[in-house]
Amino acid sequence: MVFLFSDEMMSQLEILPNEIIINIFEYLNAPDLFNGFDGLNYRFQRLITNIPLNLNCQHITKTIFDQFCQTMLTNSEIKYQIISLTLSNEENTCLEINAFLSLFSLNEFPNLRSLTLIRIKEDEMERIASMLPSLFNLTYFHYDIWDVEDTFLAPLLLTNIRKFHAEYSNIRSICTHQQIYITHLTIYHCTLNDFKTFFTHIPMLRYLNVNQLLGDYCSEDKFNVTNIQAIYLKQFILQSYRVEFEDIEYILKQTPNLKILKLSINYGDDDIIDPNRWQKLISSFLPHLYIFKFDFVINKL
């Protein structure tokens, strides 16, 4: 995206106070911001070199990517301004994760708070994992990769990471060996019994988003609802396929302080739309729930 301003628009922008201009600039991607305002005049130059920057390379062209990388190489102070970084290996991005790592080390971005890596390769993950523990301000980490060794991530999850989004991670294997103090977890799939692992070894969990609850549960796999409770969990989101009411009930009985519940279930059992069972469950186990959004499709014979 390239922003073009007419002379009239620019004159209107210049009469705004710095506070409002900064608020506007913070919504812009760093390459767009520098492309539109770098060197324009002294005032804008001062503003763009003294505000936090979000660098999202997922949807920019190779030309713009190369130009902004060159800008950072020329002016190393920009790297201290970047608080959010998104890199992608999608088809239209010319494998930019490797290109970025060939020019910079993540250690050069000490104020980085958020890191998103799309379609990262395993060798790239291994390189990045060794850098992450030194990013003391990093609190959000999102990646998607298949068949990655989660041992790469264990040191990271013991640092300052509080929000973790991993579409294909086996984070449960890490949790079983130590407690992890993340507060927000988004994961692609898990089993019912994995919730016992999450609630036991991620004690501060406040937000949980699961995209798929895997099936074939035996009764002995279901954890004892009197033993484990996620007392800090406030928001739970589940999008899944073929889920029984009993499975959801086992999970929700663990969340006495839940405030927000969002369920999207395709081909659940008949009980999933039974208002009496939901009323009993909510009144008995979810006294603090005030938002319940649901989209149910039941089995049809």
Looking at this protein, list some descriptive labels.
10 strands, elongated, 13 helices, about 300 residues, alpha/beta
**Major sheet size, sense and barrel closure:** 10 strands, parallel
Q: What is the count of β-strands? A: 10
Give the overall shape.
elongated
Elements, N to C (H/E): HHHHEHHEHEHEHEHEHEEHEHE
Radius of gyration: 23 Å
* Beta-strand residue fraction: 15-25%
How would you write the strand order of the largest sheet?
A: 1-2-3-4-5-6-7-8-9-10
Low-confidence stretches: none
Tell me the number of helical segments per DSSP (H or I, 4 or more residues long). 13
First-residue to last-residue Cα separation: 49 Å
**Share of helix, binned:** 25-40%
Instruction: Name the average pLDDT.
Output: 83
Assign the structural class, choosing from mainly alpha, mainly beta, alpha/beta, alpha+beta, or little secondary structure.
alpha/beta
Tell me about this structure:
The model has no long low-confidence stretch (mean pLDDT 83). The protein is α/β, with parallel strands linked by helices and 301 residues long. The protein has 13 helices and 10 strands.
Describe, in short, the structure shown.
This protein is of the alpha/beta class and 301 residues long.
